[in-house]
Structure to design on (173 residues):
């Protein structure tokens, strides 16, 4: 990083300010410009070093270092080590009413199923979209269907207003 342009810009700003104050101030700024250049450069280096320290504290365990090569500062960035990507933990599947599905793993049994050709093709396509085998897809579909059937047979629990039934007995004329 070349600091020369930044130091020169500050020198021009001082010269502009001095011209507004008259000839004596302009001559004073011209005499001080050489001395000010090294002070400005050192102040900029200190600011860059402080910034690198602040970034390093936020980036830890990575780091940012400020190194001088001649008169020019260079930043050296050490990225934090990549964290290993863990496979997501698959939770037990849950249906809408909060009950667990029938377990898809464990001891298995074998059955033969005959499917119409179109249904077989649709099952294969659906399994491929989910990245499952046809067998795993069918197990999941059967488990979900059984859970829904079980839920549909339970009496509905109503919230809010109660529904009352009236039963009349007797003779009608």
């Amino acid at each position: 990083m070349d600091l020369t342009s930044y130091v020169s810009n500050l020198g021009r700003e001082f010269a502009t300010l001095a011209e507004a104050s008259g000839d004596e101030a302009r001559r004073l700024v011209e005499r001080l410009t050489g001395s000010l250049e090294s002070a400005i450069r050192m102040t900029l280096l200190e600011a860059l070093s402080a910034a690198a320290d602040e970034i390093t504290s936020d980036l830890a365990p990575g780091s940012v270092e400020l190194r001088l090569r001649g008169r020019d500062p260079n930043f050296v960035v050490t990225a934090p080590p990549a964290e290993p990507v863990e496979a997501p933990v698959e939770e037990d599947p849950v249906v809408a009413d909060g009950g667990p599905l029938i377990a898809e793993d464990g001891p298995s049994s074998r059955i033969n199923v005959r499917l119409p050709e179109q249904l077989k093709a649709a099952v294969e396509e659906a399994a491929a979209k989910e990245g499952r085998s046809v067998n795993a897809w069918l197990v999941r579909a059967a488990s979900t269907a059984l859970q829904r059937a079980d839920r549909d047979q339970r009496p509905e629990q109503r919230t809010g207003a109660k529904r009352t039934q009236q039963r009349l007995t007797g003779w009608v004329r």
